[in-house]
Structures are given as structure tokens and as C-alpha cells.
Amino acid sequence: LFFSPPSQYKFRDLTIEELKDVSKTYPNFTFSMNTYTFKDGSQKDLLNFSGTVPVKYAGSSYNIPVQLWILDSHPFAPPLCFLKPTANMGIAVGKHVDARGRIYLPYLQNWSHPKSTLTGLIKEMIAKFEEELPLYSLSSSDAARQSELLSYIAKITEGETDMKSRSKTGGRNEGCFNKITVVGAGDLGIACVLAVAAKDVADKVVLLDLSEGAAKGGTMDLEIFAVPNVEISKDFSASADSKVVVLTVNSLGNAQTYLDVIQSNVDLFRGIIPAVSHYSQNAVLLVASHPVEVMAFVSWKLSSFPKSRVIGVGANLDSERFRYILTNLLKAEVLAKDAWVIGEQGEDKVPSWTSCNVAANQTEAMAARNSREKVANRAMEVLKGKGQRSWSVGLSVADLVDSILKDKRKVHSVSTLAKGCCNINSEVFLSLPCILGTSGVIEMVRLEEDPLVQEKLQSSAGSIHDLQQQLKL
């Protein structure tokens, strides 16, 4: 074999096969291991390959020099791509290239193994460069100035940026202790950013906009009105060292069935979870994508994070509303104290309590339960008419992020791995009362033993598990 990736590469055999394909199709590429410096100043030895790609533009042929860095979670995370211009070449900043030569393509944004490959990426790179040439020839005077820029680019892509020197002096994360990333710039993603900003929960919020093209709609408005401490990026490396990563993306494909819709979301997550997990290896993943129980399970499997650090937004919003209705509309404040909505989002969610000290004997306890059930049913009927809009879910997300970042040890009803609870034996995520802190779920709060509630939870677990069995992970 011409080149063998080191053992740090988790999917070494798959990476080797891809490198063989690249070498066969583009024999001018050379392979090596070098140090790459990320935006936050952290460094890692990564496999990279350099060479030229053939481009035809305006009747002429060009060889465009590029360099691709392969992350150690390849092929589940896209490579980092740069132009490598010579001293007499200038970078033509455009739709697919920034001022330092970083290459951005729809193929990278939609990266999903096994559909996405390195040779497929290079083919799209050639096609996009033929639409808009990324380099141009410099005059001799411009070439001298360009050499300064090239030395800076070389430092970026060879691990010697000024970030490195700043990190030595301790300035790397100065003033930014609580950083979160919101993945997805749709209505829900923007609602989460605004809610977190309004509650002043985090020191910095990164919004990863994975849509194609320039900033649109709400993302553009965030840039125009300059929301404090919010950074908008299309680059996964911008999420580095986040303490919480909020996932709000949902596939907008043309799927015909419910299973197809979920499979589209799974395919989307294949290109996202390994990348954000790579850059923030100690983060808590907070899933708000639909269906939240399944996508939390998918995130857990793709990230290989411990179960405590992967949670779904679950019934947190419903639980807060439920207790509000009990207290303020039905005047049942005593009942609201330990009341929760649990299970799965949608029609199958159920009310439950974490304690039942309402009666001294069995007869009184039964009467109290019947009375409580009537009030709970009324509250659930009121709850049904509320719906869940993006801004309300965003407020719920900000509430959860606040508890995690500030280590509040507050109880929330969130989607967590339910195996072992209520005689559930399958690996499914259901909303259950959990104490949250900086490491995610610290402890699951014990529920009152109610046969009806347990039966409903087991039924939900069974249907979710059957659905998961039909997915291609």
C-alpha cells in the first residue's frame, strides 16, 4: 500500500480504500501526515494530500492546486479543503472560496457516508471551479504581496497560526467559558439562538448554517442586527470546544412515507454527528430534531458518547406547561409540585408523578389517585390545544442549556436512554424526569409505580424500537 493511515483513524480500512481510489484517479496527489491547527488553537496530526485538479475555463485548461485534510473520523466527517496557490497566483474570493483559500462546497455541507466519497468531492470541486475559477494570475508586484498572504495560509494549513502562540499565553478561551453550538439555521435553530441570547445563558453561541449558498432569511437578519456573542458559520470547526451542541436540523427531502422522512434525517445526521463530536468531544448533545426519541438514539449511536451526554428535548416544554396549568388554571398547586409529562412526544405522552404521599391508608390513597387523575385529564386536555411553535421550543431549549451549563442539578423531563426503567429491555429513548448538570443526565428521578403509566411507556418503547429496527444506521 502506498500510504497507511495511523491507528488514530477510527475507520482505517474505509479510509485506505478511499485513498486508493484517489491515487488511482488522480495519480499526481501526494500523501503525508502533518499538524493541523483548528480555529480554537488546538492541534492534531492529520492525514492530508496535495495535488492539482484539471479545470477547463473559458476555452483554456488549468491545473488548480489543492490540499485536503482528512479528519480521523473519516469517512463520517467531511475533509477540510484548501487551495494551495503558488506565489504568482491570487485567490478569487467567491461563492465557494474564502480569502484564505478555504473551499466550501454543497458536497461538503451534505456529506453523508457511504454516498459521499473523496473522488466524488474532487469531481464536484472541478465542476464548481469550471463555473467560477478560484485563482488568477498576478503581476510581478502583486506576486510579491501575495507571498505574504501565502505564508499566512501555509501557517494555517500546516499548524503554525498565531492562535498557537496565543494559546501558549493562556488567551485561547479568555472570556468565553460557556460556549454552545446550534446546528441548523431554520426557524427552530434561530429561535434557540435568540432564546439562549435573551436568557444570557452562554458566553458564546455558534450557529452552524448547513444550508447551501449565502446567508438567507433569519440568518442574514442575525448578521445585520449583530446579536451579541453570536457567530454564524458554515464550518464545523467553529463549533470546537462547545459544552452543549443543540441539534435542530430536519431533512426537507421529498420522502413519501414517515419511515422515509426519518431515514432522511438519519442520513443527514451521519454527516453531522461525527463532525461535531470530533470538535467537541466532551459536549452534551441536546437533540431537538424530529422525531426526538429516534434522533436522540441515532445521535447516541453515531457519537459513541456515554448515554448521560446525549439527551432529547423530550417533554420538557409539556411538563412546564402541565405544571403551569395545574397551578394557575386549575388551582392544584400541591399536585403540580411533583407532576411530569413523560414518554414520547405526541399523542402518546402521559402524566406522572415522582411521589405520592397524599394519604395515610390504601382507601384514602385510592380516592386521592382518582381525584388526581380527573384533574390531570383536564390539564392534559388544555395542554393538547397549545401546540409547539419554534419560539416556544427555543425557550425550552434555553431552559435546558441553562441547567446544564450552570450545573443547576434541576429536574427536567428529557429524552434519555430508558432501558432498565419500567421493565423496558430495548435501547430506546423516552422522556423521563432527570437531574441535569454539566455532564448531562446525572441521575434519573424515581417515578411513582403506576401500572397504567408503565404499560403506556412499554407500549411506546415497543413501537419506537420497531421503527428503529427498520432504519439504516
From TrEMBL:
Any Gene Ontology biological process: lactate metabolic process
Domain UEV: start-end pairs: 1-139
PROSITE patterns assigned to the protein according to its UniProt record, in alphabetical order: UEV
Gene Ontology MF terms in the entry: L-lactate dehydrogenase (NAD+) activity
Top-level taxon of origin: Eukaryota
Catalytic activity: (S)-lactate + NAD(+) = pyruvate + NADH + H(+)
Role according to the record: Interconverts simultaneously and stereospecifically pyruvate and lactate with concomitant interconversion of NADH and NAD(+).
PANTHER family linked to this entry: L-2-HYDROXYCARBOXYLATE DEHYDROGENASE (NAD(P)(+)), UBIQUITIN-CONJUGATING ENZYME E2 VARIANT 3
The protein's name: UEVLD enzyme
